[in-house]
Amino acid sequence: MNAREMAWRVFASELNSSTVEIKATEEKMPSYVISPLGAKINKVLIAGVLTEKENIGSEDEPMWKARIQDVSGSFYVNVGKFQPEASASLSDLETPCYVAAVGRVRTYSTDDGRVFLSVRPDRIMQISEETRKEWVLDTAKSTWSRLKNVKKVLGMPDAKENDLIAMGMSPVEAFGIIYALDNYGNMPDSALYLKTIQAALRVILPDRDIDLGFPEDMSDEPDEIEMDMSGKTSEGNNSAQMEDLILDLLAELDTDGKGAPRDELERRAEAQGISSIELEEVSNILMDKGLVYEPNLRYLKRI
Length: 303
What we know:
By secondary structure, the protein is an alpha+beta fold. The protein folds into two domains: about 1-225, CATH 2.40.50.140; about 235-300, Orthogonal Bundle (Arc Repressor Mutant, subunit A), CATH 1.10.10. The protein is about 35% helix and about 25% strand. It is built from nine helices and twelve strands. The strands form three sheets. Strands 1, 5, 6, 7, 8 and 9 form a six-stranded mixed beta sheet that branches. Strands 2-3-4 form a three-stranded antiparallel beta sheet, with helices on one face. Strands 10-12-11 form a three-stranded antiparallel beta sheet. Strand 6 and strand 7 form a beta hairpin. Mean pLDDT is about 80; it is low at about 215-235.
């Protein structure tokens, strides 16, 4: 069983600024988009407001185009016959509403060299405003972490991947940052990402007039910004606790040997304080560890 790709949490501003690709060289190998901040992206977990949807196919064989807006811009979504669960969900959703989606990034290059990106989700689900805020907070933290790491590496002109791993970065993070700096050729536009983080904090704390006053030049900025705010993820459940709980639910709900129905698993997990986004994240972790698998898109089964 192949390890599953990590689903990156990125804002639209970072994803849509990505123009560097690593194309698969063999059949069934993944392709990647490298963001200016070094995210090595095959899959993403996105959230925001579903503002538009249109079936450009037929009633019998729908092909959906949709737009999901976050705090920084829009994700462009395409859903066809090979994403039956996402297609069925999208057909039932009414705009506007909060949604989350997990899917692969696809690129299209024009004759003049421009690169356009879209997301092809395997799953798309309606979420609550609170769940959307959780995603915004987590994605702001991830964006800030990548921005900090890029800044550190810029001060190490001869740094190699092993040097970054020794600093505490994962191999994927180390590869992505080195590759981004080698191929984009300059420091990413800090102001773009800092303004996005500011917009994210304004969503999370709407009753405060947040103006972080970030300059475009980060050279004098501190290496840390406290963005803990406790996030209220799953009422104190940590990742290990959530994994154990999901494994227990999978065993309990698998009554016929076919696996646990995803809709029932989501309802039971939510009753335990685990949001739909967190359930997706924990499911990916458990699949990466080889503890569960998907007999089909509507079921999850413990190994």
